[in-house]
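User: quick one
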Amino acid sequence: MRKNIVAGNWKMNTTLPEGVKLAEEVNNALKTVEPKCDVIICVPFTHLFPVNNVIDTKKLGLGAENCADHRSGAYTGEVSAPMVASTGAQYVILGHSERRQYYGETAETLKEKVRLALDNNLTPIFCIGEVLEQRENGTYFDVVKAQIEDALFNLSAEDFSKLILAYEPVWAIGTGKTATDDQAQEIHAFIRKTIEDKYGKEVAENTSILYGGSCKPGNAKALFAKPDVDGGLIGGAALDAESFMGIVTAF
Ligand code: PGA
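Assistant: Done. Structure below.
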């Protein structure tokens, strides 16, 4: 059966000392609770190795927020999937809407990133989601379907099974506007059906689909109660150990 997962996405926040402290706080909090989900923190590249040294990675997974679309070479300023893996990280967020929007990531570059992540035993947390206009004009089903098809449907069923998906409506990210639990369920069920049509029921049933976008301790319970919402990808609320744990314990 698919896993329930709560993953933090710190984005471009915290200095190294602040990040290590936050990771320690989450790690300590996990010593006193038995979470009913996998817990992951995705942190800036600079923080990966030091954070890996202060957490129990059996209880708290560690991920990067991106990786390069090349294995190595003359790509000044980029960080490759093998580099990320060598820090001890097990996960990598790919295709976040901020990467698509501000850094021009396309399905083609994302295909390469997914391939390289999988080749290096990193689990991609692959993000999809529509902008407000697409929500309002009703094209969001098509948009989300195309995002999955264009970047992921070249994968074998075996490789697709290694992914975690995160549905993040762009209009809900950092805005305080959450999709309602019914809106999340509607599109999560559609995403699962899209996967089923391509890879069959078993792969679809075993794929964890997280919701992201202003998920907070106050709304997590209702979202996670929906049958096709398997957890959350948490931005703002992951920057405070107490609020992050408030979401973890919503399961
Ligand atoms: P948010 O971000 O929780 O701050 O809305 C979620 C995300 O972008 O992953």
